[in-house]
Amino acid sequence: MNEKRIQCPKHLDQESGRGLVEQVRAEGVAPRQTLVLDFSETEDMDTRGGAWLIELANYVKAQNAKFDLAGQQGDVAEFLGLLRPSLVSMAEAPPQRAGVFEQAGEAALNTISEFKEFYHFLVDTIYWTALAPFEGRGFRWGSFIDELNEMGVRALKITLLMNFLLGMIVAMLSAAQLELFGASIYVADLVMVAFARELAAVMTAVVVSARTGAAIAAELATMKVQEELDALRGMGLHAAQFLVAPKVLALVIALPLLTGLGMLAGIGGGAVWGLVVLEFRPDIWFNQTLNAAMFSDIFQGFFKAFVFAIVIVLIGCHNGLRVTGGARGVGLMTTRAVVMDIFFIVLIDMIFAAFFYYIL
Amino acid sequence: MAKKSKEKKNANGSVIRVRNLVAKYGDVTVLDNVTFDVPRNEIYVILGASGCGKTTLLKHLTGLIPATNGAIEISGQNITGMDEEQLAGMQRNIGIAFQNSGLFNSMTVGDNVALPLREYGNMEPQLVNAVVRLKLSLVGLANAEYKLPAELSGGMRKRAGLARAIALDPPIVFFDEPSAGLDPIMASGLDELILNLKHLLGITLIIVTHELDSIRKIADRILMLDQGRVIFTGTVREAEQSDQDRVRQFFERRPDEHITQRNI
Lengths: 360, 264
Hints:
The complex is a heterodimer.
Chain A: E1 3-7, E2 11-12, H1 14-27, E3 34-38, E4 44-45, H2 47-62, E5 66-70, H3 74-88, H4 100-131, H5 141-151, H6 156-178, H7 186-225, H8 228-234, H9 239-277, H10 282-292, H11 295-321, H12 327-358
Parallel strand pairs in A: 1-3, 2-4, 3-5
Helix pairs in contact in A: 1-2, 2-3, 4-9, 5-9, 6-7, 6-9, 7-9, 7-10, 7-11, 7-12, 9-10, 9-11, 11-12
Chain B: H1 3-10, E1 14-25, E2 28-39, E3 43-48, H2 54-61, E4 69-74, E5 77-78, H3 84-91, E6 94-97, H4 109-120, H5 125-138, H6 154-165, E7 172-176, H7 184-201, E8 204-208, H8 212-218, E9 221-226, E10 229-234, H9 236-240, H10 245-251, H11 257-260
Parallel strand pairs in B: 3-8, 3-9, 6-7, 7-8
Antiparallel strand pairs in B: 1-2, 1-4, 4-5, 9-10
C-alpha cells in the first residue's frame, strides 16, 4: 500500500512542528504516495504548530503526493477541522501579472472609457452651469459664494506672494544681462510684458491647481468613497448641478481676478528690484512699465486665466468622480488631477504662445 | 485547547483591571468613574445605547486615547502612565478588530495579516505564509489571501480584520461592533467564530456591541454603560432579571417614553 504513516507529537507547537517538517523532508515523500499524519497521541496544538502543519502539507503537495490526517479527536479534531481548507486543498497561487499586450489593451480600453465618461461629464457640466439656470432649474448661489471665497479670497495671499517673488527673480535675472549693454531700464519692459502675457497667468494657475484643483479632486473622491454621491443621485439630484456647477462658475471668476492681481504683484516685485537695487527714479520706471505693454498683452493674460480655470476645475472634478477603492484611490486621483492640471496648463500655454506668435 | 490556553484556563484572575476611569472630550465627560475587571479567557461584552461611551472605553483600553484620570491595567501592566514606546510594546500583545475592519485597502488580505508578522513576528519568512493561511482558515477565509479588501463583503472584511488582530497570537482581543451591518446568517457565523477563538485559542475577548442576539449567544459577562457610567456588570441572565429598569429596558428592547408619546 502506497501510504506512509507518521506519528504526530503529543504537543504540536513551534518546536515539535518544525521537527515534524524536518523529519518528513529528510525521509522524503514519493510522488503519488499518501502521507498520513496520525494524531491519535496528540493532546493539544497551538497556532504555530498548525502553521508548520500547513507548511508540511504544502511540501507534500509540491512533491505530487497526497496528504491526509487520521486519529484526531476532541479539541485537536476541532482545530484541524478549521484548518482543513488549507491542509487539503492546494495553496492558492498568487494572481499572474498581466502580459505586455494585456496591459496595453487594458490601458487602451481604460482610455476610451475615460473619454466617454469625460464627454458625459462635460455635457452635464455645460448644461448645469450655462443652460439650466436660464431654464429655471436652479443654481446653488450660496454654494457658489462659498466656493468663490474659498477659491478666490483665501488663495489671494499665496498668489500675491508667489507672483511678487517671481517678479523679483525675473528682474534680477534680466538685469544681470541687460546691465552689460547699459540697458537696465528695459528690465521694466521685460517684467511688464512677461507678467501681462505669460507669467502671472501661468504662476497663478499652478498655485491654484495645487491648492484648489487638489482640493476639488480630494473632496469629490472622498464623497464618492463615502457614498455621498450615491445619496445625491438617490434623491434625484445631479452631482454636476449640486457640486460641479458652482465650482466651475466660482473658479472662472476667481482665477482671472487672481491673475490680474498677480500681474500687479509681479510688476511690483520687479519694481522693488528696479527702484531699490538698480536705483531708477520711480517716475522713469513706471513710465517705462506703462508704455511697455499693449492692451492685447493684458487681454492674453486674462484669456489664458479663463481657459486655465475651466481646465483646472474640470480635471479636478473629473478625477474626483472617477475614484475607486478607498484612501489609496483618493490619493492617486488627487495626485493625478494636479499632474494633469500642470501638464495641460503648460501645453495650452504653449499652444497660445504659438498661436499669438504666428497668427497675431 | 492549545497548550498555552490550558495553562491560562488554570490560572485564575483578571487580565484587565480598570479603576475609576474618567474620560473627557473638552468639557464633556464621556466616561465617569468606570471600574471593572475582565476575567481571563472569557468573552466580556461592553454594551449600552448609542453614544453611551462604549467605543471611547474601548479606545482607552487599547491605549489609542490616553485616560484623563484613573488606572487601566492590561495583563498586570498599568498603561495609563506609559510613554509611546511602552504603549507600542503593550499593543503588540493585544489584538484589535475595528468596526469597519481597518484593513489597508492597498494591500491584499494576506498582506494585511502578514504585516504584523513581518514587523514583529520574529519568525522564519517561510512560516509567515503558513501562519497567514492558518489565520485566514481559522476565520473561514482560506481562499481570500490574494483578494483586495474592496473585493470582500462586509462580513468577510470583518473576518479578515479579526484574522489580522489574532496574527501575533495575542492573549487579549478587542472587537468593536462585530455584528453591526451584517445579515443574521453572517452575524451568527461570526458569533461561532468568536466562540471558537475563545475555546480553541484561549483568547480573552472584549467585545463592544449592542446586538442582543449576539450578546445572549456569546457573552460570559457583560458591562452596561449609560451616559458614561457603569450601571451593571454580571451575566446576561442576571441582567435580564435586574431590578434596574434601564438594564431591563435594553434587553426587552423597550423605547424611551418620549418616543412612545404619540402627541409629539
